[in-house]
Amino acid sequence: xxxxxxxxxxxxxxxxxxxxxxxxxxxxxxxxxxxxxxxxxxxxxxxxxxxxxxxxxxxxxxxxxxxxxxxxxxxxxxxxxxxxxxxxxxxxxxxxxxxxxxxxxxxxxxxxxxxx
Length: 116
Known about the structure:
33% strand
């Protein structure tokens, strides 16, 4: 069974979050949380929160064992960016887009080679 958790509007660039998400894709939940705990990137904290939330959803809503769960996918999509500006030389103006991310984590209790 696949269970998901979504965090929306995380104020961090999707490119930075994808770097951290790729570290733990396909790992067990316990191993992924251990990896994220010692990863020195700022995106490790929101990704670990979403992984823990997906595991908690599986435990509480579907009575699945946390030790059996593996990360099926981690998707990072671009959220709406805040548009800001900055004055530049000779009367010009540059747009600054402060990017944000949506993080989706899907965990499963199925074995990798098994099909339903």
